[in-house]
Amino acid sequence: MDRMKGKVCVVTGGARGIGRSIVEKFSDEGAEVVFAIDMNKELLDQLDKETKKNIRGYQLDVTNRADIQEFVNNVKEEFGRIDVLVNNAGITRDALLQKMSEEDWNLVIDVNLKGVFNMTQFVSNLMLENGKGSIVNISSIVGERGNIGQTNYSASKGGVISMTYTWAKELARKGANIRVNAIAPGFIKTPMTEKMPEKVLENILSKITLKRMGEPEEVANAALFLACDESSYVTGHVLDVNGGTVL
Ligand code: NDP
User: Fold this and answer.
1) Is residue 24 within 8 Å of residue 216, measured between CB atoms?
2) Does ligand 1 have an atom closer than 6 angstroms to the CB of 14?
3) What is the C-alpha to C-alpha distance for residues 59 and 224, in angstroms, rounded to an integer?
4) Does residue 175 lie in a domain region?
C-alpha cells in the first residue's frame, strides 16, 4: 500500500481508461500527489469529486508547450520536484494508407509522439535538477508489430519506443538516476477500443493467447512496478502487457 510513498507523480491522459487506472493505483499506493493531466474538463471535475485528496486533475493539452512549461513551473514551486512521469495520453485516427488524410497523420503524430517529447523535455529538466526520476511511456503492441489501418498510430508508438531507448541513455549521464521505460499494451478494454468494429475485435481475440482483452488495471500494475523503486535496476526496457498477443 505504500510503494509510491511520498512521490510526486504526473500522468497524462489521466481522466479515463488506462491513465485513470494508473492515477488511482499511484494514489492508493501512497503517492504524495498524483496530477491527472487531461483535456477533458468534465471528466477531470468528476475525478476531483470521486477520488482521494492526493489526486489533482489538471487541464492541459500535451501539444501545448507553453502550458506544459507553466505546469512544471507550478509543480516546482509547490513541491520542488517531479518523481514520476507517465506519458499515457494518446489518440487514434485509423484509416488504410491510401485513405489516410494528412490532417489525421499530423494530429496523431502531434499528440502521441510530439506530446511525449514535449512533456518529457520539460519534466526531465526538473528531474535532472533533482538528479532522479522515473519515466514510463505508454507505447503499444502496434508500435512493435504494426497493424492494418494504423500507419499514423504505429509510427507514433514505434517512435515512443525509440525515444525510450534514447532517453534511458541520455538521462542517466553525469550521475543522474533517471530511469526511462515503456509499456507496450495489447488490446485493453477502454473507451479507445470500444470504438472498434465487432468484426475487428473478434479477429483480435483469436490472436490473443489468453483469449480475452486486458483490463486497464493490468497495465496500471506494470506502470506501478516501473515507476516505483522496486524496478531500481530496470531502464531502457519495453514491457509487453498483451496476454500473449501474436499480431
Ligand atoms: P482513452 O482514449 O480511453 O483515454 C485517453 C485519454 O487521453 C483521454 O482522456 C483523452 O482526453 C486524453 N487525451 C487525448 N489527447 C490529449 C492531449 N492532447 N492532451 C492531454 N490529454 C489527452 O485511451 P486508453 O486509456 O485506451 O489509452 C491510453 C494509452 O494507452 C494511449 O496512449 C493508447 O495509445 C495506449 N494504448 C491503449 C491500448 C488499448 O487497447 N486501449 C492498447 C495499447 C496502447 P479526451 O477525452 O479529451 O480525448
Assistant:
1) no
2) no
3) 23
4) yes
**What end-to-end distance do the CA atoms of the chain give, in Å?**
36
**Domain range for 196:** 8-241
Distance, CA of 31 to CA of 38 (rounded, Å): 19
User: Is residue 2 situated within a structural domain?
Assistant: no
pLDDT digits (tens, 9 = 90+) for 181-219: 999 999 999 999 988 888 888 999 999 999 999 999 999
Q: What is the pTM of this model?
A: 0.98
Pocket of ligand 1 contains residue 187 by CB under 6 Å: yes
Question: Could you tell me if residue 1 is inside a domain?
Answer: no
Residue 87 alpha carbon to ligand 1 centre in Å: 10
Instruction: Please name which of 189, 185, 240 lies closest in space to residue 212, comparing C-alpha atoms.
Output: 189
DSSP code at position 211:
S
User: Which numbered atom of ligand 1 lies nearest the CA of 15?
Assistant: 9
SS3 state of residue 33? strand
